[in-house]
Amino acid sequence: MAITDDIAACTICAGRFAATATGHHPRPVVWFGAGARILVAGQAPGARVHASGKPFDDPSGDRLRDWMGIDRATFYDMTRIAVLPMAFCFPGYNAQGADLPPPPVCHKTWRAGAMEHIGPVPLTLLIGGYAQKWHLGTRTSVTDTVADWRSHAPAIFPLPHPSWRNTGWLRKNPWFETDLLPALREAVQKALT
After folding, report:
1. Bridge partners for 83 per DSSP
2. What local confidence, expressed as pLDDT, does residue 94 receive?
3. Kind of pairing, strands 81-83 and 123-127?
C-alpha cells in the first residue's frame, strides 16, 4: 500500500476532532505524488477544503494561485505540484470559532515518509509559521521570515497564508507584492519547465 493510501485512511485524530467545537471526523486531504516540481507546504486544510477534499479549493487558493502566476489546472496537476500541509485533516475550531493548530501527531507520523515519497523538488513554498518553523527551523515571526525571503530564494519562498485575514498584512507590507511576487512567479515558471 502506498503512503498516500495510508494517510488517506488515517483516523489517529478521531477522538481529538470529535472533542472540538465542530465535532467532525477525520478526512485527510492527500494531494501529492512522486516527482512533483513544486512543493506547497502549508498548515492544515480549512473547513471548505475538508468539505471538498481538494487543497486550496477556496478563496485562499485563488489568491495563492495568483501569487504563483498559475491556473487551477496547473495547480491541481499532482505530477507538477505537491501540496503537503503540516496536518492532513481540518483540525476544527475552538469554542471561540478560531482555527485550531495542526496536531503535531500528524506531521510526526507522516511528514518524513511523505517528503521521501515526493522526492527532491526544485521549489518549495512555505505557507505560514508552522511550515516555516518545520522546514527552516526558524523561531522568528512570519513577517520576519517572509521579509528575509532572499536568504532562501530561489529554491524556497516563505509566504504568509493567502487567507483574506491577511489582507491587512499585505497592505502593511507592500514589498511583498512589488519585490517578492515577481521573483516567486519567475521561480514557479522555471520549476515547471
Report:
1. 31, 40
2. 83
3. unpaired
Instruction: Report which of 33, 81, 92 is spatially closest to residue 56, judged by C-alpha positions.
Output: 81
> Which of 165-183 are b and which e, b meaning 16 or more Cβ less than 10 Å from the residue's Cβ?
ebeeeeeebeebeeebbee
75 contacts 81 by C-beta, under 8 angstroms: yes
For CA atoms 148, 154, 156, 159, give the dihedral sign.
positive
**Which residue type occupies 108?**
K
CA 97 to chain centre: 21
The three-point CA angle 83-71-9 to 5° equals: 25
Q: Beta-carbon neighbour count of residue 1 at 10 Å?
A: 7
pLDDT given for residue 98 in this prediction: 81
pTM assigned to the model: 0.95
